[in-house]
């Protein structure tokens, strides 16, 4: 009897503990996100659906996913829309949790970094006007922003936030490009060129039923993240093979090779290696950037220029289109292979003489084969 009473008491105690603990922990989460929205709303004078873009890495930093439900409750509670008012960028797991609230009407941007977990609260907060026209207006406005960039006013995310927010404010930033920026976490001419290339490939070798792309991203630059997002061409699913080229090899391929896009059509039973180049010179000439411009100016102008599909003619070209088979494709994937050499577009001897160290060790692979 005594034991039963004891058991009842213990159950009661456990119940009370949970009743006290649960609302407290849930309350803390709601508190942090509500605090972030409240601060941003106050600084910007409201969060109008017409004018607001939120950029955040919520979900990427370790354990930050627990705030996602609260975040979306506030987000939709403010009448904001997923495809209109949000860019959820990917960051490394050890990144801080941050939010940028941009108001396109005023050009003001509230940048907030928070601490979360045991101690919750806003740990850093700043409001800056980031309207590109004003930042880039003259020498003194540029110098002023350069100083703020050097001082990491947005904790090192100045370039990403200024380019994404201003491009979004034009109303011409394609949502499917925004989805690529979520993965790439910044907006640069490299990712823009990937978008142009992806559209070119889809237009000329349509991604119809039974068609898939295997990309040899060689040489590598920011463009590859577009192929991952758009075609699910991930390294893990063997859709993307990444390696680099030497300056001499690039020259031998015409100066601006972008990669090899292998188009496999299961229904037709065909496999073609489409070798493409991407020429940045029309972009540099057309975008209006001047020599001596800070990179945040020239790169943004290049992005703006490439956002306009009318400017895409002539920047992507075919270096070669070669019918291949499964065995050739497998050879291109091997670690020791240069896919351009496999396709016969680069001379193996030439490639070896470009890498003296490997030429010196050139005898080793033969020895290995014999053993
Ligand atoms: Zn980039």
Quick overview:
The protein is an alpha+beta fold. The protein is built from 17 helices and 10 strands.
What does this structure look like?
This protein is 47% helix and 18% strand. The protein has 371 residues and is an alpha+beta fold. It folds into 2 domains: 25-184, no CATH class; 189-280 and 316-370, 60s Ribosomal Protein L30, Chain: A (2-Layer Sandwich), CATH 3.30.1330. The strands form 2 sheets. Strands 2-1-3-4-5 form a 5-stranded mixed beta sheet, sandwiched between helices. Strands 7-6-8-9-10 form a 5-stranded mixed beta sheet, sandwiched between helices. α1 (2-44) crosses α2, α7 packs across α9 (224-231) and α8 (189-204) packs across α9.
List the main descriptive attributes of the protein structure presented here.
alpha+beta; 371 residues; 60s Ribosomal Protein L30, Chain: A; 17 helices; five-stranded mixed beta sheet; globular; disordered C terminus; binds zinc ion
Please tell me how large the radius of gyration is. 26 Å
Proportion of β residues?
Answer: 15-25%
Please summarize the sheet with the most strands. 5 strands, mixed
Structural classification: alpha+beta
Q: Which kinds of small molecule does this entry bind, naming each only once?
A: zinc ion
What is the spatial order of strands in the main beta sheet? Answer: 2-1-3-4-5
Gross morphology: globular
**Helical residue percent band:** 40-55%
Low-confidence stretches: 14-30, 352-371
- Please write the string of helix (H) and strand (E) elements: HEHHEEEEHHHHHEHEHEEHHEHHHHH
Give the total of domains.
Answer: 2
Oligomeric status: single chain
Number of H/I helices? 17
Report the mean per-residue pLDDT as an integer.
Answer: 90
What is the terminal separation in angstroms?
80 Å
Number of strands: 10
